[in-house]
Design brief:
Blueprint: H1 2-24, H2 26-34, H3 37-50, H4 53-82, H5 87-111
């Protein structure tokens, strides 16, 4: 149980740290947020718990393919905000579009024989 609490604390602390840094510098916040910290932590936790490099490799491969549709959020959100849409409606719309992109990517990859 202590191990899981430690994982939660470390992961949460990184997110809070990035959001606090972003208040002072959007550039530094963006650099830190663009580093796949959550993905790296997930791979570290997975390896630490299983010692299964095949599982880590499969996770890394799946993350790679799913980063592509996640970019829809980062394109859509600033466009919608720039057009005067409120933050929460813009965020909701961008997330919904991203979900659609994920769905389409999974369909396309399945059609091409890529297993996630």
């Amino acid at each position: 149980m202590t191990y899981y609490i430690s994982k939660i604390i470390i992961t949460t602390a990184l997110i809070v740290l990035i959001s606090e840094i972003a208040k002072r510098s959007s550039l530094v916040g963006a650099i830190l947020a663009s580093i796949p910290l959550v993905s790296v932590l997930a791979m570290i936790w997975l390896y630490a718990e299983t010692r299964d490099t095949a599982a880590v490799s499969a996770l890394a491969s799946s993350i790679f393919w799913l980063v592509l549709p996640s970019l829809a959020l980062f394109v859509t959100l600033p466009v919608l905000l720039g057009r005067g849409l409120g933050f929460y409606p813009a965020l909701g719309t961008a997330i919904a579009l991203t979900v659609v992109c994920y769905y389409l990517m999974v369909l396309i990859l399945g059609y091409l024989g890529v297993k996630l």
